Amino acid sequence: MRRYLIACVLAVPVLTMAQAPATPAAVERQPAEAATAPSLPVRRVILYKTGVGYFEHLGKVRSAQNIAVRFTSAQLNDVLNSLTVLDLGKGQITGISYNSVAPLEQRLGALRLPIGENTTQLQLLASLRGARLEVSAATGTVEGRLLSIERRMHQRDGDTREEDVVSILTDTGELRTYELSPAVRLRIVDRDLRHEVGRYLDTVGSARDRDVRTMVISTTGTGERPLFVSYVSEVPIWKSTYRLVLSAKEKPLLQGWAVVDNTIGEDWHDVELSLVAGAPQSFIQDISQPLYGRRPVVPMPTTMMLSPQTHEASLGDGAGTVSGQPRGVSEEVRVSPDAAASRPAASPRGMPGGTIGGVAGGLPSAPPAPMMGGGAYDQARSLDPRADAAALGDLFEYRIKEPVTLRKNQSALVPILSADIGAERVSLWNRPTGSGRPLRAVWLTNATGLTLDGGSLTVIDAGAFAGEGLLAPLKAGEKRLLSYAADLGVIVDARSQDGPGRLYRVRARAGIITQETEEKVTTTYRARNENATPTTLVIEHRLEPGWKLADGQAPIESTADAQRFRVVLPPAKETVLEVRGVRRGESAISLGTLDALFITQVGKSGLSTTELERALKPLLDKKTESMAIERRLNALQKEAMGIAEDQQRLRENMKALRGTPEEKQLLQRYTRQLDDQETRLDALHTQVTAAAADRERVRAELEALVANLSFDVAAPSGV
Fold first, then answer.
1. Lowest CB count within 10 Å: 96, 465, 525, 564, which one?
2. What pLDDT does 9 receive?
C-alpha cells in the first residue's frame, strides 16, 4: 500500500515542521541535511496571471533518503499553504522540516542589551551604563564603571561642533571625562558582557541570510521508488507578446510568444509547461514565520485561599469508552465517504492511474488532496497531450507541446501561437474635435479558435516594421481594432455645432405638468485622402452622458462609449460625414401655478395649442373665479379694518370731551356715527362669511380639476 503525507491548509498530524530550533544540535543538523540532500527535478509547471505558479516535482528516492527543495521566504509561505508530498512506492514520508527563524525583533528582545537592529555607537554605550570599562588615552589607562554618555556642543577657535563624551567613575571614586576620538580606546572588562555584545552582532548578521529557506523532505522505505511533490509558489507574471505579419499576397499571420521566468531556485529540465490566461484569486499569508501572541498579565490572587478537597468515588462501571490506535501505528488513514467524495481526484502523470494535475478547472486554493484509501491521486480529468490550448472555465490554457529547459534565474521566450487571422487595414479617427492625422490600424478578427491573452503587438507590413500596439484579451471569434502608427496619407477635421433646442412634448398627470425638451448637436467630419488607393476610415464618435444618436443613423459597430462609422475615402477627394446627436430632458411645474401665459409659451415652441386650451380652459376659468373671490374678500376685510380704526378714533375723542362745554353736542354726534358703523360692520361680517365660504368651495373645485386633469400634447413625428 502506498504511504502518503499531505501538507495543505489542514495538515495531517504526522507532518512536523521545525519552528525556532530548540537546541544547538538541532540548529546545526538541519543545514547539514539541507547541504547533502539531493534535489527533486521539476517535471511540470503551470504559470498564472496572478503571479503564482503550480509546480510538480517527480523523481526517485532510495531507502531512507532526504530530498531538499529551496525557496525564498515569500515562496515558502505559498508552499506551506499548498504543499502535497506523495511516496508512490512502498515507503512513507517521515517528516518535513525547514530552517525557520524567529523575527529579528523577537531575537533581539531575548538579549540583555536594550538596543535595536540599527543601533549607533552612542546607543550601544548608553545600553552599557554601569558596566566596567577600560579607557586608554594619551594620559594613561583607567578602569572604572561607565556613568554616562552624552553629546555636547564645544566651541574651539570660534567654531561650534558636537562631541561625544563618556564619564567613568573609578574604583577610588574619581570621576573622569573623555572625549571619544580616534585616540581614545574603550574595552569591556566583563567577559559575559563581551559575549552578549558578540551575540548581538551574530544575531544582526544572521538577518542577511534569513530569506534563504531550504525544505528537507525525509523518507523511509525499501528499494527505489518514485516521490511526487507539488505546491503553489509566487513567481513573476508571464507576459504575452505578438507579431502580426501583413502581406498583399498571403493571409495575415499572427505569431504569439510568452515571456517566462524561472525564479524558484531549481533548474527546469524537459519540463511540461502550461500558461494560463486569467486571474484566479490568490493571496499571501506569512505562515513561515513563528507567530508570538500577546498574553494578558493576570495578578496573583491575594484574598482567596483554597482548601484541600476530597472527591467522591464513582459508582458502577463507566459508560463511556475510548477507542483507537496510537499515532504512527496505523498504516492507513481513513475518512468518511462523504469527505472523500468532496475532494478533487488526481494522480501523478506518467504513473499508473492517470495524469497529475487537475488544473483544467483553474488554479485551486490548494493543490488537490488525494482520495484517502485509494492510494495516491485517483484518476483526474485528462488533458489531451496533443492539444496546444484548452478552455479552463473563465480561464484559458496554453500548453507547450515540446518540453522546456530553463535554468534558474533565467528567462525565455516561448512560442504559444502561430495561425492565420482576419485583419482588415483601416484608418482610425477617435478624437472628438480638431484637425489632424488618423491612426493606421487593423480590424482584427480572432479566427484562431483560441483566446488571445493581452500583450504588446508588433506589426510587420510588406517585410518591414510598421509599428507597435497593445492587444487587449480577445476571445475566439471576437473582433477588435488595433492601432499601430499614424496615417500620413489622410487628414481629418472634426467640428461640432449646437442646433436649436425645442419643446416637443407637454403632458399632465396627478397635478404635475411635465415639459420634455430636446437639444441637438451636429458633428461634421471632413476627411481627405491623399493616397493613390481608396482608404477605409473608421470614425469613433463619442457621445457625452445623456446624448444619443438621432434617428436614421446606423453605425457599423457600437462600444460602451462610442459609435463607429465606416467611410470609404476615394483617392484625392474630400468626404464629409455628419453625425447628429440629441439629448432629451424634462422639467416639471405644478398645475396650481399655471396661468394663461403658459399656453402662449407652448404655442411659440411650435406645439399645437388647440388641445391644450381645451384641456386647460376649465382650470383657468376656475382660477379666474377664485382670484375674483379673493379680491372681493380682501376688499371687505379692508373696509372692516378701516371702520374699526375710525371707531377707535371716535372713542378717543369722546374721552377728551369730558368736562368741556361741547361735550353734550359732540357726544350725540359721535354716538350716531358709531351706531351707523356698527350697522355696517354687521353687514360686512355677513358678506365676509359668505365670501370665505365661496373661496373654500372654489378651492375644492380647483383641487378636483387639478387632480383629474390629464393631457398629452406632442410634436408630430419627424418634426
1. 465
2. 28
CB atoms within 10 A of CB 572: 10
| β 455-461/239-246 pair status | parallel
Q: What is the DSSP annotation of 699-712? A: HHHHHHHHHH--EE
Rounded distance, CA 427 to CA 565, Å? 12
User: Whole-angstrom Cα distance, residue 620 to residue 611?
Assistant: 14
**How is residue 665 written as a grid cell?**
353736542
Q: Which three cell numbers stand for residue 432?
A: 472628438
Please, are residues 246 and 422 in contact by the beta-carbon 8 Å criterion?
Answer: no
pTM: 0.56
Q: What is the DSSP letter of 218?
A: E
9, 10, 14, 19 alpha-carbon torsion, rounded to 10°: 50
Q: Is 715 helix (H, G, I), strand (E, B) or coil?
A: coil
Please state, in angstroms and as integers, the Cα–Cα distance from residue 205 to each residue in 23, 199, 201, 358, 714, following that order.
20, 10, 6, 44, 86
Among all chains, which residue has been given the C-alpha cell 486571474?
279
Is 334 strand, coil or helix? coil
The pLDDT value recorded for residue 117 is 65
Q: Measured between alpha carbons, how far is 455 from 276 in angstroms, rounded to an integer?
A: 14
Which residues are CB-neighbours of 19 under 8 A, at least 6 positions away? 100, 290
- Own/partner pairs, 388-392, CB within 8 angstroms, 24+ separation: 388/416, 389/450, 389/451, 390/360, 391/451, 392/276, 392/278, 392/359, 392/360, 392/361, 392/362
So what's the pLDDT on residue 22?
A: 34
Q: In DSSP terms, which residues pair with 67 in a beta bridge? A: 217
pLDDT at residue 322 in the model: 37
Contact 504, 516 (CB under 8 A): yes
